[in-house]
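Progress report, Aim 2. The chain analyzed during this reporting quarter is listed below.
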Amino acid sequence: MDIITLTDGNLLCLLQLASPALPVGAYSYSEGLETLVENGTIAHQAALQHWLEAELRYGAIRLEAAVMVRAYQSVKMGDFKALSYWNMWLSAARETEELRASSWQMGRSLIQLLSKLEPQIMPIVNAVGNPCNYAIAFGIAAADWDINIKAALLGYLHTWASHMMTAGVKLIPLGQTVGQQLMRSLQGLLCDVVVEIMNLEDDELGCCSWGLSLASMMHETQYTRLFRS
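Predicted structure tokens for the chain:
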């Protein structure tokens, strides 16, 4: 296993970027999970764990994470044309209006925050164009703060899993201890998925997330909702 080296400052930047307190509105999205709970597809701890594991192995989050890596690399190389390309590519890859809107909203919120914390990155942001996807904004921040790319990828995936776990705990509902047990059980898979994503070539980018897409489309007309998607 590769050893990730971070300075104290890098680690603090990663903790800030991956923090649930980051004001990007991630807590307001369930990415179709609310629909799956509503129709009984996910009704207990084992089902939620299976869904999280399947998404990490085959789902859209892998695609987003791979594009985040490419955004990070584009910033490091000063290739703003590539950065803009991957932003448009990811927008086109979003299967539903809800999923695309959530990515754009979170990206916009993170860019607005970064513009106040790090005004010098605005030329990079302007090169991306509007709207900016969250994965792109995350990659820009991680590169600007000089966070190790593997650590940034772990943080990105862990943050996603944490938000989805929290949504499941609220919706099913489950206890907080069960939620933490789920997160602990995912650690090995998160490490494995990071290695796989780091080794993906551009022509290997893809996902199997038709279940998520259908759940997201049904969520648009769901009668009662706690989450925006």
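The radius of gyration is 17 Å. The domain at 9-14+29-215 is CATH 1.10.4190.10 (Urease accessory protein UreF). These observations will guide the mutagenesis work planned for the next reporting period.
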